[in-house]
Structures are given as C-alpha cells and as structure tokens.
Design a protein that fits this description.
44% of the residues lie in helices and 8% in strands. It has helices at 11-21, 51-71, and strands at 35-37, 44-46. It has a two-stranded antiparallel sheet.
C-alpha cells in the first residue's frame, strides 16, 4: 500500500481553509506545515494536527515550568 506524502500548503490555501471551516484554531491533517501565519491577525499559529507542533508546544511549556520553578 502506498501512502501519499503530505505537502506544505500555501498561505492562500490556509486562508481558504479557515474560511471554509470557520475554525478558530488551525488543525489541518492534510498540511505538512507545523506553523502557519494567522490569516485574520498578525502572528503565527501551530498546526495542531501535526505531531511536531505538539512537541514544540510541550517543549515550550516544560521550559516555562522550569523557569518558574527556578525563580520560586
């Protein structure tokens, strides 16, 4: 069985995805990007359907927890 490789979506495709789904957060399993630009505001957001995003978020939370523990 052949698996189809995911491709990185363009900014226009991401914007269209937001418009079609009406979603607040970005969780697109078809998109290989782990971070994308927010279409409605400035900044970036994580693609929560990509496992890399979850690892990045976990790493940030662990670093914040360690920093708080170090100063308290």
């Amino acid at each position: 069985m052949r698996t189809q490789k995911k491709r990185k979506w363009t900014a226009e495709e991401v914007t269209r995805w937001y418009q079609q789904t009406g979603a607040i957060t970005y969780a697109n399993p078809e998109d290989a990007n782990w971070v994308v630009r927010k279409p409605r505001s400035l900044g970036w957001t994580l693609n929560w359907a990509n496992p890399k995003s979850c690892l990045i978020a976990a790493g940030i939370l662990i670093a914040l927890w360690a920093a708080v523990k170090a100063f308290l």
